[in-house]
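Quick one:
INPUT:
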């Protein structure tokens, strides 16, 4: 508990200083600038007047004082007055001369000298240079080989200590394509080298990505500028997370919290591009915290996979159904199933028949893994075994959609899939008023008419909530879960009821199919792993396999509870449009941004 609290405070205060090269660049010249949050910051922004006006002032000043001093000098020579005898106007003129000279030297001189001494170290190429380039391929190469500053896609952070391991950030050195690479690019463009073979042929995943990217740009004639290549560990995704990479998409991660859940505070990472989402969840967390925290119960933990097999008759299909559901056979079947992994433990097999086709829904615990791979291996073991006694069984598919993965299905809503969690909190009346800016009766009524009746009117399947999938998807992306599983993972019924003689609000979310893991898939990637680490659920739990994933499921439910509370309150108070206008609509002219 303490360590999580400590990590919470670190997360909110840690603010890495800008790297030295950035500080230096910001202090140098007008020609160098840094991009930050889509807004270009230039050194000239510090000037009180626009750049062209400042230049005009200093030019005029410089030439005026030079003219004035030369005139005075000529007069002194004519009158035989010593040159070093100065009156006040001459002293002022000399100061003005020095000041304007220094300004003009700084403006034109330093940039000029730098362009001679360090022609290749500019962070950004001059746009004129790009326009002047003759060959479009050269433009692309030039854009790709430039350094990308922090804020434009790179992790510029120093090595971090995560769980006592030193984790170095991925290399920031831009990939410079050599002549040899150029040959490979041409061969990919021609089609003689398949793009998917680059990793195995080159033995260097980053180089493979750079070459594939360049070939893609030439083939499509479209620039990928803006999609970063540098700063990502391409080895870590090979054979596991993504094939044929050409870069990576950046999604900002915001923090909501602290979420006080079962007596522990969590800082919840949310990867989203939807304005108001983090702020709103954060407000819900505040309301929960001020009311003493939320409590959760994990009701079930079992991943499912349902193969479909076919027989010549419905009778034979029914035979197998009875065999699989006979308690006397369970021990033997589970022994065969469990051989797939030391973490896979068969819980039950539920069978449904459609004519002569049989759907067997296997449920098993999978430790800290979300478990799809693990359960598929176990199911395959059982199918192989059954083939001996049911040789007329034809396996149609290891997944027959009765599982049901990444599709809205009543079986998940009723039976559960992954982790089934209920999470509740009593929000004090004064917190409803002061933090949520509404009242208990309005919230309870809105919940009944919107989340229950409204969803029933819409024929919802598991959608008896305001926006569970918003919060869940953001936490899923931040923590490396499979975002496509948000379909059934977001199934949720939100209940709100006035309690304590109408003073306070009892709110709960019941989520039967939260599919999460803390090992496997995207969870081992650096960014996602850091977010899991922030929650204290990174990797496998060594003392009790599965407890990290189970804890993560309860945190997801707790975060959904916070999100539900806040959005429902905004709706009840009529604030929704106002807050979206504030957080979700930047004043930027979008028409000027798109190319
Ligand atoms: P999934 O089944 O979710 O697709 P993977 O198969 O990619 O996940 O990852 C699970 C792997 O992690 C298995 O090989 C398993 O042996 C290993 N593993 C290590 N520790 C654990 C743990 N505590 N719980 C589950 N799996 C674990």
């Amino acid at each position: 508990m303490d360590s999580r609290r400590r990590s919470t405070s670190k997360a909110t205060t840690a603010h890495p200083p800008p790297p030295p090269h950035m500080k230096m660049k910001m202090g140098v010249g007008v020609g160098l600038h840094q991009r930050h949050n889509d807004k270009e910051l230039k050194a000239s922004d510090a000037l009180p007047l626009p750049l062209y006006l400042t230049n005009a002032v200093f030019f005029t000043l410089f030439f005026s004082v030079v003219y004035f001093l030369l005139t005075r000098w000529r007069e002194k020579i004519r009158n035989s007055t010593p040159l070093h005898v100065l009156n006040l106007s001459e002293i002022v003129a000399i100061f003005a001369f020095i000041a304007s000279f220094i300004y003009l030297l700084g403006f034109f001189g330093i940039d000029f000298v730098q362009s001679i001494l360090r022609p290749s170290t500019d962070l950004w190429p001059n746009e004129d240079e790009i326009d002047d380039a003759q060959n479009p391929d050269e433009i692309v190469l030039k854009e790709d080989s430039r350094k990308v500053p922090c804020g434009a896609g790179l992790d510029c952070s120093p090595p971090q200590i995560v769980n006592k391991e030193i984790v170095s950030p991925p290399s920031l050195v831009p990939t410079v394509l050599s002549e040899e690479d150029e040959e490979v690019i041409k061969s990919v463009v021609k089609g003689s080298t398949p793009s998917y073979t680059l990793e195995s042929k080159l033995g260097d995943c980053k180089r493979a990505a750079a070459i594939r990217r360049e070939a893609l740009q030439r083939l499509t004639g479209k620039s990928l500028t803006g999609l970063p290549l540098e700063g990502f560990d391409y080895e870590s995704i090979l054979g596991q997370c993504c094939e044929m990479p050409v870069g990576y998409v950046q999604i900002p991660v915001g923090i909501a919290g602290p979420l006080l859940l079962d007596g522990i505070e969590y800082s919840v990472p949310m990867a989203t591009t939807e304005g108001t989402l983090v702020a709103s969840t954060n407000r819900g967390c505040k309301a929960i915290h001020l009311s003493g925290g939320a409590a959760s119960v994990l009701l079930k933990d079992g991943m499912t996979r349902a193969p479909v097999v076919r027989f010549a008759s419905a009778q034979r299909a029914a035979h197998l159904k009875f065999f699989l559901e006979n308690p006397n056979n369970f021990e033997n079947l589970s022994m065969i199933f469990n051989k797939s992994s030391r973490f896979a433990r068969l819980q039950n097999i539920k069978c449904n028949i459609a004519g002569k086709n049989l759907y067997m829904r296997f449920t098993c615990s999978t430790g800290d893994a979300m478990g799809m791979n693990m359960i598929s291996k176990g199911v395959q073991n059982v199918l192989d075994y059954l083939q001996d006694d049911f040789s007329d069984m034809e396996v149609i598919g290891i997944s027959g959609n009765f599982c049901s993965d990444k599709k809205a299905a009543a079986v998940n809503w009723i039976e559960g899939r992954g982790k089934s969690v209920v999470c509740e909190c009593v929000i004090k009346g004064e917190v409803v008023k002061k933090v949520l800016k509404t009242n208990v009766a309005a919230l309870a009524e809105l919940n009944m008419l919107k989340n229950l009746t409204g969803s029933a009117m819409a024929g919802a399947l598991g959608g008896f909530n305001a926006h569970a999938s918003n919060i869940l998807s953001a936490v899923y992306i931040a923590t490396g879960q499979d975002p496509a599983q948000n379909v059934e993972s977001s199934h949720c019924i939100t209940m709100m009821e006035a309690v304590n003689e109408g003073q306070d609000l009892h709110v709960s979310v019941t989520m039967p199919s939260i599919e999460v893991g803390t090992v496997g898939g995207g969870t081992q990637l650096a960014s996602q792993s850091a977010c899991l680490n922030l929650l204290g659920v990174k990797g496998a739990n060594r003392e009790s396999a599965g407890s990290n994933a189970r804890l993560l499921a309860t945190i997801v439910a707790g975060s959904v509870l916070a999100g539900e509370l806040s959005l429902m309150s905004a709706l009840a108070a009529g604030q929704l449009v106002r807050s979206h206008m504030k957080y979700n609509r930047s004043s930027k002219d979008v028409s000027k941004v798109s190319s």
